[in-house]
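REVIEWER CHECKLIST
Item 1: Sequence provided? yes
Item 2: Single chain? yes
Item 3: Sequence as submitted:
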Amino acid sequence: MEKTIKILSCLLLLSCSSVSTFADEPKRLAVIISAAWGADEAIHNDSMAMHQALRQRGLRANEILSLEGSLNRNIVLSFLNEIGKAIATWREGEIILYYTGHGSLEGKTAREAIVGLQLSMQEKVSWNEVFIALRIPPKVRLILLPDS
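Item 4: Structure as written out by the authors:
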C-alpha cells in the first residue's frame, strides 16, 4: 500500500506541476474521488461521466485528477495532502472537488452535523479533514460537488 501511495504522489506532483502552465491562463484543477463499496459499477460510471463533463467544459486532461476504487482514510488523505502541497503557491484559481460514493451524517441538528466521505462501513473522512488536507489558499475558489 505504501508503494501505491508513493506512486500516486509522484503522479500527482507531475500532473499538478503542468496544470495551467500558460501565464495568462487561470490555474484550475478538478479532483474526482470515487469510493465504491465492492463492485459498484454505478460509482465508476458517475466518475467517468463527471470526467467527460469536465472535459466538455474545457478542462484539459492534466487538469483532472482522479482517485477511484476501494479507498481508505490513508489513501484519501494522502491524495488530498499532495494536492494541497501542489496548490500551496497558487495566488488565485479554482479547485473543483467531486465526490461520488456514500456519505455520512452525524448529529441531531444542522449546526451539529458532521458530514463526510463514507469510504466503507468502518471508515470515513469528515469534510473538515478534507478542507484541512487541501489547505486551499485564500484567493483560490473551491467548487464542491458532493454526490453522496
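Item 5: Key structural point noted by reviewer: The radius of gyration is 15 Å.
Item 6: Recommendation: ____
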